[in-house]
Amino acid sequence: MTAVEVSYTLEGPADAPVVVLSNSLGATRGMWDPQVPALAERYRVVTYDTRGHGDSPSPAGPWSLDDLVDDVVALLDRLGVQRAHVAGLSLGGMTALRLAAREPARVEQLVALATSAKPDPQGFLDRAVAARAGGTAPLAPTVVSRWLTPGYAAEHPDLVARLEAMIVAADDEGYARCCEVVAAVDLREDLGRITAPTLVVSGAEDPALPPPHQQAIAEGIAGASLVSVSPGAHLPNLEQPLEVTGALLGHLDAVGGHA
Question: Which UniProt keywords apply (predicted)?
Answer without folding.
Answer: Hydrolase
